[in-house]
């Protein structure tokens, strides 16, 4: 199976370095163009399913990315961005001034340090993995683990997609090292993962080992 994890296009809050979290901000002109660019990159890709966060910036990116292809887009709250708690709506400069230690820990990319009053990256990543397991299992209930040629597009948010990737490919190193080793996912860019969901994945009871690998990043 190939998971194509696409981050939504840019918003005005992205451009201003303002923490969005669950706040529903729409794409700006640059973001709409990034979604069009993603559509062109995906034009020759055979997709079996499309899942997206219901937040407008992700939903609109998904709509543009698969426009005129006759594919249904399944929206799920489990694919929403990391909850930003007290930080939502504030610029990074404002956050740094009010919570300097918490902000520094978050910027250092540790999966257990998230926005004050919100989710940690680890919590958000695990939520996304569990959501995808459930969605894919429901769509192919008898053989979903064995679909080697299945390609699934997931349109969501940079923070939670990066965290989910770190958890899925982090076998052999700590979650902190796996997460810190991944650069931020850019607007309108994808992570391509290859593997299959299994009983020992993060998000499954008792799971930690994984078959997933990164085939491409920020493409």
Features:
alpha/beta; 6 strands; six-stranded mixed sheet; globular; 219 residues; Rossmann fold
Major pleated sheet: 6 strands, mixed
**What is the average per-residue confidence, as pLDDT, rounded to a whole number?**
90
CATH topology: Rossmann fold
Distance between the termini: 18 Å
Helical stretch tally: 8
> What percentage of amino acids are in beta strands?
5-15%
Q: Tell me what the CATH architecture is.
A: 3-Layer(aba) Sandwich
Explain the layout of strands and helices:
Layout: E1 2-7, H1 12-15, H2 29-42, E2 49-52, H3 56-65, E3 73-75, H4 92-98, H5 100-107, H6 121-139, E4 151-156, H7 158-169, H8 175-180, E5 190-194, E6 213-217
Parallel strand pairs: 1-4, 2-3, 2-4
Antiparallel strand pairs: 1-5, 5-6
Binding site for substrate: 7-14, 57
Protein name: Probable phosphoglycerate mutase
GO molecular function: phosphatase activity
Plain-language structure description:
Substrate binds at residues 7-14, 57. The active site is at residues 8, 81. The protein is of the alpha/beta class and 219 residues long. The protein has a single domain, classed as Rossmann fold. 37% of the residues lie in helices and 13% in strands. The protein is built from eight helices and six strands; from the N terminus they run βααβαβαααβααββ. The chain has helices spanning 12-15, 29-42, 56-65, 92-98, 100-107, 121-139, 158-169, 175-180; strands spanning 2-7, 49-52, 73-75, 151-156, 190-194, 213-217. The chain has a six-stranded mixed β-sheet. Helix 2 (29-42) runs parallel beside helix 3 and helix 4 crosses helix 5. The radius of gyration is 17 Å and the shape is globular. The two termini are 18 Å apart.
């Amino acid at each position: 199976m190939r998971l194509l994890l696409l981050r939504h296009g840019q918003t005005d809050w992205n451009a201003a370095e303002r923490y969005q979290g669950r706040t529903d901000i729409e794409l700006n002109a640059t973001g709409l163009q990034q979604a069009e660019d993603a559509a062109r990159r995906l034009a020759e890709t055979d997709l079996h399913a499309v899942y997206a966060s219901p937040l407008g910036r992700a939903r609109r990116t998904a709509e543009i990315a698969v426009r005129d292809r006759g594919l249904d887009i399944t929206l799920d709250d489990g694919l929403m961005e990391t909850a930003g708690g007290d930080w939502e709506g504030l610029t990074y400069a404002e956050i740094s001034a009010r919570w300097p230690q918490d902000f520094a820990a978050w910027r250092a990319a540790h999966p257990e340090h998230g926005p004050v009053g919100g989710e940690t990256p680890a919590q958000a990543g695990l939520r996304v993995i569990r959501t995808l397991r459930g969605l894919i299992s429901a769509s192919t209930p008898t053989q979903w683990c064995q679909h080697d040629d299945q390609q699934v597009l997931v349109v969501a948010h940079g923070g939670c997609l990066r965290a989910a990737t770190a958890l899925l490919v982090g076998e052999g190193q700590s979650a902190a090292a796996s997460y810190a080793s991944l650069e931020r996912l850019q607007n309108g860019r994808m992570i391509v993962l290859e593997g299959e969901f299994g009983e020992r994945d993060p998000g499954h009871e008792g799971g930690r080992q994984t078959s997933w690998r990164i085939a491409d990043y920020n493409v």
